[in-house]
Amino acid sequence: MARSRSQSAPRMTRDATRLVALAQALNRSGSRVEDVFWENQLGDSIPKLLKAGQDAPLEAALDHLAQTDVGAYEVLIEQAETLSESMKIDKNGVRYDVLLVVAPIVAWTRYAIPTGPISASAQQALLAQLHGHVLSSKARSALMPVLVSVDQMPRTFSETWQWLQRLGSQALGAETTKPTLNTEVETANMLADTRYIVGAAAVPEGEPIFRWQENLGDADASRDACLAQWAAQAQPTLAGLLPGCGFESLLPDAYYVSNREADRQVRPLSLRAAVSWLEGAVNLEASQLRAVVAGCGEGRVDEYRIGFTARSSNDVYYGCVWPLYGREEDLISDEGQPDVVDEIAALLKEYGVSDVRRIPGVLPPEYCEDCGAPYFPNPLGELVHAELPEDAEAAPAHFH
Question: Which of 171, 89, 162, 169 is nearest to 130 (CA)?
Answer without folding.
Answer: 171
